[in-house]
Amino acid sequence: MENMVKKQLYFITGNPGKFKEARLALPDIKQMDIDLPEIQEMDAKKIIEEKLQEAIKEMPGKRFFCEDTSLYINSLNGLPGPLIKWFLSSIEDRGIFDLIEKYDDKSAVGKTIIGYTDGEKILFFEGEVEGEIVCPRGENGFGWDKLFRPTDSDKTFGEMDLEEKQQYSMRRKALTKLKDYLDQEDGE
Q1: Is residue 108 part of a domain?
Q2: Alpha carbon 1 to its chain's center
Q3: Those residues with Cβ within 8 angstroms of residue 166's Cβ, 6 or more apart along the chain or in another chain
Q4: What is the DSSP annotation of 106-167?
Q5: Contacts of 182 (CB under 8 A, 6+ apart)
Q6: Does any domain span residue 1?
Q7: Any residues with CB less than 8 A from the CB of 103 and at least 6 apart, and which?
Q8: What is the DSSP string of 41-84?
Q9: How confident is the model at residue 1, as a pLDDT?
């Protein structure tokens, strides 16, 4: 087999929490904090694909990925989904809880979709975790961690340390799939 040099992998994110979690699965990645346009869309794959297409134009020949982590609340017919960032910035986690408190069904799904490109093809890797929306608790994590309690846990992500969160994490599940693909692609 010819001697292959593994090309550097970049994670496009400005979120230090996401980068820290990603390095648990992919320790050699480098963070790239560039501002890419983000279309507003309920289909997370379309959002990611658009970002990757823009990144390819800005950084041809590089190997990178970005992700979208969404929260789909069943009683709200899947809202906020990929729009969770905007819900959090306007009504915060307590406001989201207040919105669904009146519903019997507080179930939700957290889903991470990673989009990866080698500059030519785009591939997607997904991970999800089921749980429910609860009154915000905890001081750890970021985003909606304080109001999401995974099924089979009595704690929210916000009450877990990083190691405990990894047992349930939808991001870890998606990153593991990406890592498996890269290991195969890189011949490891």
Answers
A1: yes
A2: 35
A3: 21, 24, 172
A4: -EEEEEEEEEEESSS-EEEEEEEEEEEE-S---SSSSTTGGGEEETT-SS-GGGS-HHHHHT
A5: 9, 26, 116
A6: no
A7: 75
A8: -S-HHHHHHHHHHHHHHHSTT-EEEEEEEEEEEGGGTT-EETTH
A9: 37
Residue 2 belongs to some domain of the structure: no
Structure tokens at 175: 């990153």
* pLDDT tens digits for range 32-57: 988 888 899 999 999 999 999 999 99
CATH number for position 135: 3.90.950.10
Q: Which domain holds residue 89?
A: 9-185
- Is residue 9 within 8 A of residue 65, CB to CB? The reply is yes
* Chain segment 12-26, per-residue pLDDT in tens: 999 999 999 999 999
How many C-beta atoms surround the C-beta of residue 6 within 10 A? 12
Amino acid at 52: L
Q: For residues 37 and 56, is the Cβ–Cβ distance under 8 A?
A: no
| Residue 80, preceding peptide bond in cis (omega within 30° of 0) | yes
Work out how many domains the chain is built from and give that number. Answer: 1
Please indicate, yes or no, if residue 165 is contained in any of the structural domains. yes
Question: Quick count: other Cβ atoms within 10 Å of Cβ 69?
Answer: 24
Strand, coil or helix: 10: strand
Q: Which amino acid is at 75?
A: S
